């Protein structure tokens, strides 16, 4: 048995399908995945999703649709003749979801509440569909700390804006903390897939998950700012010294809720800028578009390798 997998114990059935840590669900006659526009009563979720092996999440519907087409090409998946990729969650008007064989590509919006809701429903989707040992990836963007713009950062730890290595959620009026844990083996394997020939760096580091893009990330260019540029730099340099390589807005619930569900997961983000050098994202659009492919390229290498060895 793989010691890296022990944290997942008790959250999977012997065949690898996801067990829910909620006794209520199996007693319900149907479960409506409201924000995905799917339901266990209205859809044959087993038929639709049982073959899912990789759940890839990223912020925007457009990027996740493009990732779906990219991974289709990479794994040589052919759509049935006469069909095109459909946004499965189109009628939720919340998230977009595309399926390419064993890969689901879903947009998660911005911030912890948005990805938190999506994780609840996606984990339940994995449970209802009996998908075996699914692996979750977040392919995102971030602000870097002391790294060149365009650098790919694989998270090996996640902290919130107060430095907690856990996801704090008020539940029934009390704060419940769930630890952020990434699968070490998966992070290592991803790092090993960085090619020395890639024209950019791929590095491991702690990710800070902020609940805001502006003041919550120490920016001076929001609508409000009550600290100085010097205060900001002192804060960001302190974060960097403690091992933080990047700042984004979803890694904490992503790490904590996948870990709570016993699902292997990794966060791979490309830095759009070096926050020690500025706040505004002024990189040209074409350059940003190319940057956004970098986490996708790494995850595609992982998926291809996985599918080849199975
Ligand atoms: C990265 O980019 C978004 C903010 O611009 C946010 O979703 C994140 O984590
Ligand atoms: N996303 C963030 O959350 N912060 C940045 O600085 C860039 C992208």
Question: Main traits of this protein?
Answer:
12 strands, globular, 7 helices, five-stranded mixed beta barrel, Rossmann fold, binds uracil, two-stranded antiparallel sheet, 310 residues, alpha/beta, binds 1,4-anhydro-D-erythro-pent-1-enitol
Structural topology:
Elements: E1 32-33, E2 38-39, H1 45-49, E3 54-58, H2 61-75, E4 97-100, E5 103-107, H3 112-129, E6 135-144, E7 152-159, E8 166-171, E9 174-179, H4 184-192, E10 202-209, H5 229-241, E11 244-248, H6 251-260, E12 264-274, H7 285-309
Parallel strand pairs: 3-5, 3-6, 6-12, 7-10, 10-11
Antiparallel strand pairs: 1-2, 4-5, 6-11, 7-12, 8-9
Helix pairs in contact: 2-7, 3-6
The structure holds 1,4-anhydro-D-erythro-pent-1-enitol and uracil.
Radius of gyration, in angstroms, nearest whole number: 19 Å
Alpha-beta classification = alpha/beta
Secondary-structure element sequence?
Answer: EEHEHEEHEEEEHEHEHEH
Would you count the extended β strands for me? 12
Strand composition percent: 15-25%
| Major sheet: arrangement of strands | 6-11-10-7-12
Molecular shape = globular
What is the terminal-to-terminal distance? 18 Å
Ligands (ions, cofactors included): 1,4-anhydro-D-erythro-pent-1-enitol, uracil
- Second-tier CATH architecture: 3-Layer(aba) Sandwich
């Amino acid at each position: 048995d793989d010691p890296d997998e022990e944290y997942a114990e008790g959250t999977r059935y012997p065949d690898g399908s996801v067990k829910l840590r909620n006794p209520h669900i199996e007693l319900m006659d149907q479960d409506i995945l409201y924000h995905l526009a799917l339901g266990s009563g209205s859809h044959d979720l087993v038929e639709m999703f049982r073959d899912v092996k990789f759940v890839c999440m990223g912020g925007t519907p457009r990027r996740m649709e493009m990732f779906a087409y990219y991974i289709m090409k990479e794994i040589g998946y052919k759509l049935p003749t006469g069909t095109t990729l459909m946004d499965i969650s189109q009628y939720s008007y919340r998230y977009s979801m595309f399926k390419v064989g064993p890969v689901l590509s879903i947009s998660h919006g911005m911030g912890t509440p948005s990805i938190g809701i999506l994780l609840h429903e996606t984990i339940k989707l994995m449970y209802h569909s009996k998908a075996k040992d699914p692996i979750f990836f977040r392919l995102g963007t971030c602000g870097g700390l002391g790294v060149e713009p365009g650098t790919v950062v694989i998270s090996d730890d996640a902290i919130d804006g107060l430095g907690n290595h856990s996801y704090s959620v008020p539940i029934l009026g009390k704060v419940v903390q769930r630890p952020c844990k990434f699968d070490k083996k998966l992070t290592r394997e991803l790092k090993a897939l960085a090619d020395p020939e890639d024209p950019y760096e791929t590095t491991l580091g702690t990710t800070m998950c902020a609940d805001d893009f502006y003041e919550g990330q120490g920016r001076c260019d929001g609508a409000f700012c009550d600290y100085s540029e010097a205060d900001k730099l002192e804060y960001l340099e302190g974060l960097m010294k403690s091992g933080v390589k990047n700042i984004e807005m979803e890694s904490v619930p992503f790490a904590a809720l996948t870990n709570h569900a016993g699902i292997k997961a990794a966060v791979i983000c490309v830095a759009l800028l070096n926050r020690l050098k500025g706040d505004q994202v002024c990189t040209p659009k074409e350059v940003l578009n190319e940057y956004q492919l970098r986490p996708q390229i790494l995850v595609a290498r992982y998926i291809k390798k996985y599918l080849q060895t199975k």
